[in-house]
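Reply to dn_fold:

You asked what the input looked like. This is it:
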Amino acid sequence: MRNIHFISGLPRAGSTLLAALLRQNPRVQAGMTSPVGSLFTALLGQMSAVNEFAVFLTEEQKEAILKGVFDNYYADHQEKVVFDTNRLWCSKMPALAALFPEAKVIACVRNCSWIIDSIEILVRRNAFNPSKIFNFDATGTVYSRAEGLSAGNGMVGFAWNALKEAYYGTHANRLMLLRYETLTSNPAAALKAVYDFIGERSFDHDFNNLEFDAEEFDARLGTPGLHRVGRKVTVTKRDTILPPDLVRRYENDNFWEDAALNPRRVRVV
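and this is what came back:
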């Protein structure tokens, strides 16, 4: 594989939009969350002491097996710049650095209360379809849903913890944070920053002719529209639907906005 990078970060923060934009470039392969992350973690588990036969695997063999997952999944795109998308990659920076020494990670971020708000809008829009995000539980409230999302193993909480691990970790020089607000309000600058960060020449993207939808995948999650991207990149102004106390609960979680909390000087766009 000529070149591989990763899209990670927080949910509902622009990763699908970023991938859809990058895919306009014929030199690039990018998509929504791929199965590679799940295969990667499953193999890590099976190559650990939980499997008594793992004793026959050397560290070099483990590395080759894991790298082979990427090489085989993207076998049809060997000559392209590949972006694999998964929220778990921020928690696997040491492994990625060992497997792909030149790889960079673009982490999409967004005000945390607006992430919860965005998911809540989808829940209410699909009022007759309980979501897999909440284990198809139809009895919750906006408060229980927010708590579940924010838990350490929740959709938002896990991604937020993984992001902080990468942000403050020893491989932070491989990490760039891309604000959802920047991507939607100034997509040209956002894409230029991505290309600069990975060392690729820019491409003339069309921000008014864009569309992506994973209808079957989202339907299986009970959350139609979860990965839908509109035709035009634009900023939508509206009021939050969250109760004020929930908004306040997340107001101090946007650590990337405070330069004093960025000791490794991670680039934030």
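DSSP finds eleven helices and six strands in the chain.
Hope that clears it up.
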